Amino acid sequence: MTKKHRDRGSAAVEFALVVPLLILLVLGIAELGRAYHLQTMISGAARDGVRVMALQDDPAAARATTKASASELNLTDAQISVAPTTCASTASTPAATATVAVTYPMDFIVDLFGAFGADLTLTGKGTMRCNG
Questions:
Q1: pLDDT in the model for residue 87
Q2: Distance of CA 94 to the CA centre of its chain
Q3: Residue-level pLDDT at 86
Q4: Please, where are the H alpha helices in 57-108?
Q5: Which of 16, 46, 100, 112 could crosslink 124 through cysteines, CB 3.0-4.6 Å?
């Protein structure tokens, strides 16, 4: 009977020791899921932008399509690179390959990694032959 009496608070102590690790695990899973979602959105926006560049030969339209495709991210022109600037081909130069690359710095919801100086920049890239 006395043995049960001494173990009365052990569950609360064990819970207090385990909860920080569980919270850290759940927050890490949430950040990883968010990073995957952003990476998928950035890659899709780059593919949409390169499709417009390859078919319309208009870098401004490619940037606008990329921004519209990832409207949640509020991308700037500096974060979107379009190369080459023209898809025009001549007899001496074969059809080029258009590339749109998007870079986006990811901000963590919980700044656990910021304390260690970790910085995460996500990149999406789309490549397509000019003129379809």
A1: 80
A2: 33
A3: 84
A4: 59-69
A5: 46
Sheet strands side by side (includes 97-106)? 80-83, 97-106, 120-129
Mean pLDDT in each 10-residue stretch from start to end of the chain (132 residues)? 68 91 90 93 96 92 96 94 81 77 88 63 93 74
Please state, in angstroms and rounded to a whole number, the distance separating the CA atoms of residues 74 and 116: 27
Q: Could you tell me the residue ranges of all domains in the chain?
A: 2-129
pTM of the predicted model, to two decimals?
Answer: 0.80
**Any idea which residue has 């996500």 for tokens?**
122
Taking the C-alpha atoms of residue 88 and residue 98, their distance in angstroms, rounded to an integer, is: 11
Say which DSSP state 110 is in. S
Which structure tokens are listed for 65?
Answer: 């399509």
